[in-house]
Amino acid sequence: MTGFSGKIDLPAPVRAAIACLEAHGHTAWAVGGGVRDSLRGVTPHDWDLTTSALPDETSAALAAYEVHPTGLRHGTVTAKIDGMALEITTYRTEKGYTDGRHPDKVDFVANIEDDLLRRDFTVNAMAYHPERGLCDPFGGQNDLQNGLIRAVGDPDARFTEDALRILRGVRFVSKTGFAIERQTGYAMRRQLARLEAIAHERVLEELTGILTGQYVGRALRSCADIVAAVLPEITPMFGLCQHNPHHRYDVWEHTVRAVEAIPADPALRWVMLLHDSGKPHAYTIDADGVGHFKGHPHISRDLAERALTRLRASNALREQVCALVELHDYPLGQEEKIVRRRLARLGEEDVRRLLAIKKADCTGQDTFSIHLAELQTTERLVNAVCAAGACLSLRDLAIDGHTVRALGFAGPDIGRVLRRLLAAVVDQTVLNQPDTLCALAARWKENEHV
Predict the structure, then answer these.
(1) Nearest CA-CA partner of 397 in 373, 424, 357
(2) What's the pLDDT tens digit per position in 131-189?
(3) Residue 430 CB burial class (10 angstroms; 0-12, 13-18, ≥19)
(4) Could you report the per-residue pLDDT of 345-355, keeping only the tens digit for each?
(5) In degrees to the nearest 10, what's the CA dihedral of 93, 99, 100, 101?
(6) Quick one: average pLDDT of 363-384?
């Protein structure tokens, strides 16, 4: 057990839970991510405890609080103390991982060190007690200080037990910027085939966590082969030189830079990861040695559809990502008339998303700064048009379908008239006023021109 000279300021509910358990003759420690993040100087999102008490003993010791049996098979109860939910798990060891993900058997044990031995990485295998300090049998504190992600004990054994730990390691790289310790990295790669047995939903969750991390670029560069094991759509991008004056980097390096450059919204990060995945399949080179990628947005959209369908992404995420991937090269314009049309067609939300995508794409190209200046012009126009409350949708028109029907139109013609009126208002050829719109529609009716 390694000594620890500093102190972690445990939240009052955590201290209360430890005090209650120990007043009933048990031992208890704060454990896992709360300890890790506190030592890093990061405010933890939640706190977990581990204890020598069995689940029913934990419930009895915390009888003054709200306690729920949330995972009795693994010795876990959840206590709510002063509004904070605490997962409290009995010290345990795990045996047999037939499915490569979950233990076949859990044995409750009497000491904290045996419990920490079953955990994935050293930085997660530390526990803290308000009086006894840090319990760190595997050097997690030292690895935190050195920025290393190291498996507890035999790394092959850890990834054989639970293959999802491979992706979780990459996620820690993205979250912390740490490097993967060499032997741990070798073992992760030796065990990659085991990821095939992991539920697609869990893979998607880890990939999204990787993509939204602060150090996503470091994770994608250092662990591209690991990510590709579960997302083969990215492999053809690796090392593909673009031979194009608009691109300084190969397709993969451009992609990574574009992912880094966009806000850490899950959908936007997925868009940037896959927006150029179709380039290897569309690549041609002309007589002057210049590379071209005609039609790559549509191919990229198909690859994104395939990947997110396989990973069982929600319909909302899949549809949004695929639509934006296909539109990522769609020009938004630097003239108010064009910008108004784009806003009318796509809506403000998607226009702003496309602006973010195009800015990130330009940043990833790192060639012509004038393109970023053009996008800034577009953004100023978008802001001005939206601030002015311009009519950009059918619901903003000064007349509706009932009015158009009263003018003598019927069936599909009603919708066609409304759309034509909207187009005229968007282009500012007519004012969005009831009398003006009715007069124009009546003229179309008279001329039988809808």
Answers:
(1) 424
(2) 999 999 999 999 999 999 999 999 999 999 999 999 999 999 999 999 999 999 999 99
(3) middle
(4) 999 999 999 99
(5) -60
(6) 89
Whole-number Å distance between alpha carbons of 37 and 43 = 6
Q: Of the ranges 89-98, 269-278, 419-428, which one carries the lowest mean pLDDT score?
A: 89-98
pLDDT tens digits along 32-76: 999 999 999 899 989 999 999 999 999 999 999 999 987 767 789
Instruction: Give the pLDDT of residue 298.
Output: 97
Distance from the Cα of residue 33 to its chain's centroid: 19
Single-letter amino acid code for the residue at 87? E
Task: Round the average pLDDT of the chain to a whole number and report it.
Answer: 92
pLDDT band, very low/low/confident/very high, at 379 (cuts 50, 70, 90): very high
Distances (CA, A) of 220 to 93, 328, 363: 33, 21, 17
278, pLDDT greater than 90:
yes
205 CB-near residues (< 8 Å, 6+ apart): none
Question: Beta strands 148-149 and 179-180: pairing type?
Answer: parallel
Per residue, the 3-state secondary structure of the chain, as one string, reads CCCCCCCCCCCHHHHHHHHHHHHCCCCEEEECHHHHHHHHCCCCCCCEEEECCCHHHHHHHCCCCEEEEEEHHHCEEEEEECCEEEEEEECEEEECCCCCCCCCEEEECCCHHHHHHCCCEHHHCCEEECCCEEECCCCHHHHHHHCEECECCCHHHHHHHCCHHHHHHHHHHHHHCCEECHHHHHHHHHCHHHHHHCCHHHHHHHHHHHHCCCCHHHHHHHCHHHHHHHCHHHHHHCCCCCCCCCCCCCHHHHHHHHHHHCCCCHHHHHHHHHCCCCHHHHCEECCCCCEECCCHHHHHHHHHHHHHHHCCCCHHHHHHHHHHHHHCCCCCCCCHHHHHHHHHHHCHHHHHHHHHHHHHHHHHHCCCHHHHHHHHHHHHHHHHHHHCCCCCCHHHCCCCHHHHHHCCCCCHHHHHHHHHHHHHHHCCCCCCCHHHHHHHHHHHHHCCCC
- pLDDT above 60: residue 294: yes
Amino acid letter at 391?
A: C
